[in-house]
Amino acid sequence: MPTVTDQITAAEDDALSWEGGGFSCFTTTLYLGKDTGWNNSGFRFQLNVPQYAQISAAKVTFTAGEANLSGDTVHVVIQYQDTDNPVDFSGDDFAAFEGRTRSSARVDWDFTTDWVINLQYDSIDFASLIQALVNEAYWSYGDHCVIFFDDDGSDANAYRRAKDHDATLSVTFENMPRHPAAYNNLAIY
Question: In Å, what is the CA distance from 85 to each residue of 30, 72, 88, 107, 160?
Fold first, then answer.
């Protein structure tokens, strides 16, 4: 099974919003969880996976931007932007970022792992979320996708800071499409 990866390298491909109306795609770190208020982070990746491929694994790898030794529980919900080939965040402000349509499909990620600066940490596996994305009628191989990590009731001051322009999406899949319509033109011998 092939695994494809895409690492963010441009400032416009990751962004952060926070309670009180704040927004930035030019910050040095992105928050997962809650510091003085909630934080929502978005990451835009190019995904070279065909429509209806069978997804067996998916994760984002973050590099810690600071040490977080709180021991408190971070609660985030992972969703994709339910839009065909979403644009980067360069034209966004708080309202535009928060107004991007989140998928009804979601994966909850609750963790207490302490982060050490410059070490890498993997998200929970969210293969089911990427499966829902590539099953969308609008999905095409090579499209961009936005993955959101939104606070979902984290403990007070329970957050992890990830370096910006550094997150990497990894997706493992089988090429054989799962959708029955994809078999209509296959010759059986």
Answer: 23, 36, 10, 21, 28
